[in-house]
Give the backbone structure.
Amino acid sequence: PPPTSVDTTTIAVAIVLVASAPPTDDDKSTLKGDIVTQIGLAESDIRNFEVTYVARRRQLLTGTWDVTFDVVASLSEVGEADAASFQADIESELTDSTFQASVVSSIAAVDSFESVTSVVQTRNPSSV
């Protein structure tokens, strides 16, 4: 069930991985599991997880996996004071060199991380 707390926050995350081949379903599952473990939340807190392969025209043997997902959680449940702190912690976990090396070694097609970005999603209050 989705969090219903008033302090529920959504962090949109985008990761670009340099890869030698499109992702398989197993690759996607492994990557999502690695991310869930690294940020220390439940898999149900990761929403809209997508991996898109983009071939690079000038470098025939490489492309990128554009990975996007939302992290949705209650700030009080995850022990964060505010959305900006939560965002910074997620980005810090995903840019950790040990984590990135682990992903590169566990998924054969992934060569390296190109970028990790995140933003706090804001929404207009709904009318009641």
